[in-house]
Amino acid sequence: MIPPLLLRSFLAVAETGSFTRAAGRLGLRQSTVSQHIRKLEEQLRRTLFARDTHAVGLTPEGDALLPFARQVLDAQARMQRFLEGTQLRGRIRLGASEDYVSARLAEVLAGFTRTHSAVDLELTVGLSGLLYERFDAGELDVIVVKRRRGDPRGQLAWREALAWVG
């Protein structure tokens, strides 16, 4: 039997392409995630990741394991929700600036929809100003946008470095 914790670490490394980013996502230390992957590879007697000094990628065997790991973790999450009886249900109307949809938000939303399959997530992508207007009009429940100067609402989700190219 493979412990779900090892599969969670496997999935996080596979999705982020980095042991460090996977550790950040899971709230663990990088060394702990590395240990989880080592234990999983030993238990399966397979090399799941091709590693070099700059990148981590799935081997063909790791790629083959990916859908099984997702199914096991999804089944565990459904069982947990059933046993807890607190499954989220309903609709969330989310607005997001184009700047964030293709970056971190995609992986966050994928994880949310896997965990909360009974929630109907409606995503609206647009410019920050228009999303603020729709939020203020009650047409959106949550928005992920650049904060307007002087607007006290909102909570910092993450910071990004700005680069000048040219």
UniProtKB/TrEMBL annotation:
The lineage of its organism: Bacteria, Pseudomonadati, Pseudomonadota, Alphaproteobacteria, Acetobacterales. Belongs to the LysR transcriptional regulatory family. GO terms for molecular function: DNA binding; DNA-binding transcription factor activity. It comes from Pseudoroseomonas cervicalis ATCC 49957. The keyword DNA-binding applies. This is Transcriptional regulator, LysR family. Keywords: DNA-binding, Transcription, Transcription regulation. Pfam families: HTH_1 (PF00126), LysR_substrate (PF03466). It comes from the Bacteria. Residues 4-59 form the HTH lysR-type domain. PROSITE patterns: HTH_LYSR (PS50931).
